[in-house]
Design the sequence.
């Protein structure tokens, strides 16, 4: 079970109650009264514990599980031990995510404002928001209902944060509008100046960055990630995007709905992503590109050209995945031939 | 116009006053009395607004602009609509930058020290400096005239910050000397230990890092960027350098004047850059290299060797730009040939 | 000498006392009474100063040194000037590291808790720990003897920090156990949620991250580095690991003892490193890999497969170092051939 120093567990739950709440159906309704009190992995779960099978490579562990109950796809049901209650779900991992949220709902600090917080008198803070020690809220800022702001975070002048957001410690927000139910992890920086200047040997001259950052509802943004505000237009992150740690998003960039950006990726200024684009870790996109809906960029790739919707690109410079692997294979083959000749 | 929650606009300005202040000349002096009250893009500007044309690919939008006035190169003057006043400039973007600064001068918090700031009695803070809530100033530190320090920033023992600097929230400075008119964005870390140790299977042994970081005048350093102090010599960033977000600069590195380092680039220990070097995003330089004045490194490149002044290098390992593109083209050609044979 | 605004020097030391404390032996015991008062580089050291020779490329400077004493390998002893006392050591850099620590022991702030710190009444803080201004310590957290916590750092609920740790300013710790003698530089983020969610077009669903981060004794972790907590298992950094700035370590990753991870490298979820693995700067490891003890990964490499113990891999995708250089050479040769034909 999760370390109780850090986590508070809810439950136990009757399977008959739990299954519909996480989008599953009991294979045998007579199991509805059985109770589960925690989640665990397939190999470690025991009596009273709920597990799941999603990745096919763990399927062989299924017959040996001692779990009280298991979430799985119907195609694996026959392989499960007789003693384990089965929760059938088309997407077992999604179902597990919902179940785990029931057992471990996100913890909430008490509502209210710590006396060490500094809140400008012109700011509007919902009465049930929670402001931790040393928070600073600037003039005219608005903090929505139920929103939590961690210690030492700084919410600048005029910033709007929607309802039910979770803002970690040491976050800096300026020149931005944040939607509802957004999670910003510790050290996130949103709204600072973009990298805009007119190069000049006598001294580069700053171009005032006059746009904002607009973050849609239900986004999650990882630790120490930086998102610069627009130069004139806004920088926009669409609803439901998940952005990992140490990501850089330049000025005027726009992300559609549900994009996934993995750690240490970077997007240069004015590039536009459609919906559900996936950028793998340490990838980079040049500026002023258009990346179509559902496109995918491989880890460490460097994208220099537009990507049509639905395509996967890899490499530096990035190219279609098939072409990329052909290049890799070609180079390996030629190098081996040379090796054979010279060794 | 810029969102008034975040920006305060100055003006309006008479064109006759504005033009010389941003380095332009009115094409028709009879337009000197016309007024402009804001800046806008070429396609969005209307009456009373100032726009500019710099990138040739927008030239075709010029005849349709409804702007009150437009900053442009003399070669485009004939294509502008008759109603638009023209401000002729050799470098229109530079001229626009200056004009935009007039409309949107950087905002200043009031001078003085917030009562929650903790200032060591041996520190020297200029009377017109501004220290935000929760700032910490260590023993012997010096903060120059007109300098602004954002909430929660920590200025360590002995650090010297020059006049008219803008230090964002949550910045950490130690073991460093910062010039005048330097902008440090939120989360910048300057002066912490470099990555110096003697490897030993019984436990790596720390090598005390006895140098400093010296940042020249007029530098701008981006959010969450890290600059380690020297191991014995100093780490030096020359005057007028622009460094983007999430950049890493190792111990003993030196940058000349006016260098540009784009987001997520990294420079390993003891590498020396001349003046006006440009490192594109996500590039990396190995340690102990010499990069000549005006050299350029492409995005995602990995530099393993010295680069002579003025050369552009790309790739991993980086090579001259012409050679790099020849390699890319060769690999593509060979892979296609193979593809043709096998598909 | 080191800038006295930032460093306090101990000493002077008798060579006869110093040598055994840093693992060296005086070549001539009659030099035991000579005194040294500082360290300096081989070319800059003068009377009263201690230097060292480690890198063979500096050996030619040895005969000209004016240093009072020099740490070196016995093989260079004959080349040293007669006036310089010699401290013979098998690993001169390691020996220098220890000597420099004697001259410049890490500075300590006074013990005690600044009145602006906010310490939960259920936390346990050792009486000789030092809590700087604006520190926040959560419920049930434990801070070990002699541990120093810098301004604005946030230690979350239940976190355990061992004895004699040095935690810089603006560090965020949650859901983690930190060993003894650990150094965390400014802006380090440990224990936040891993990047775990079930992708879903209707909205990605968060998977609660129920593990912890466990950091072993004697680790050093660089500025703005992020280490996510485990999804169920823990994220583990073994004892004696050195991690540089801006590194990303994903959930469930495990590092053995004494690993070295250089700046801006990243390790994706569930990858396991053995002991003494070295990851060079800006390298990246895919998830679910096994990297054997003593393996090395080159700068900017992208590792997609397991690496056996002791092997060095380079490139994207990474391959054995010999194969990598063969590929580079092959491509160069083919590109030149093409260049010759076409130019």
Sequence:
């Amino acid at each position: 079970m999760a370390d109780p120093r850090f986590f508070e567990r809810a439950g136990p739950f009757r399977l008959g109650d739990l299954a519909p709440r996480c989008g599953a159906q009991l294979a045998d309704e007579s199991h509805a009264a059985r109770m589960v009190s925690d989640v665990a992995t397939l190999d470690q779960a025991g009596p009273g514990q709920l597990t799941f099978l999603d990745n096919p490579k763990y399927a062989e562990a299924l017959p040996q599980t001692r779990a009280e109950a298991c979430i799985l796809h119907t195609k694996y049901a026959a392989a499960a031990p007789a003693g384990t209650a089965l929760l059938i779900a088309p997407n077992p991992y999604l179902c597990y995510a919902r179940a785990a949220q029931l057992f471990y709902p996100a913890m909430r600090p008490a509502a209210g404002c710590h006396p060490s917080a500094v809140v400008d008198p012109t700011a509007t803070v919902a009465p049930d928001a929670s402001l931790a020690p040393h928070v600073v809220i600037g003039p005219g800022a608005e903090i929505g209902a139920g929103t939590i702001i961690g210690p030492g975070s700084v919410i600048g002048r005029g910033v709007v944060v929607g309802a039910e957001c979770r803002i970690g410690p040491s976050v800096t927000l300026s020149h931005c509008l944040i939607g509802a139910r957004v999670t910003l992890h510790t050290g996130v920086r949103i709204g600072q100046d973009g990298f805009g200047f007119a190069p000049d040997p006598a001294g580069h001259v700053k171009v005032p960055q006059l746009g904002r950052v607009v973050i849609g509802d239900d986004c999650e943004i990882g630790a120490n990630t930086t998102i610069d505000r627009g130069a004139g237009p806004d920088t926009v992150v669409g609803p439901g995007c998940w952005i990992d740690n140490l990501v850089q998003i330049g000025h005027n960039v726009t992300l559609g709905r549900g994009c996934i950006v993995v750690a240490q990726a970077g997007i240069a200024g004015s590039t536009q992503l459609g919906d559900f684009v996936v950028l793998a870790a340490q990838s980079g996109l040049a500026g002023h590109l258009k990346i179509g809906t559902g496109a995918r960029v491989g880890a460490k790739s460097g994208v220099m050209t537009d990507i049509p919707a639905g395509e996967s690109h890899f490499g530096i410079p990035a190219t279609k995945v098939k072409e990329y692997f052909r290049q890799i294979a070609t180079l390996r083959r030629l190098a081996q031939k040379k090796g054979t000749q010279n060794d």
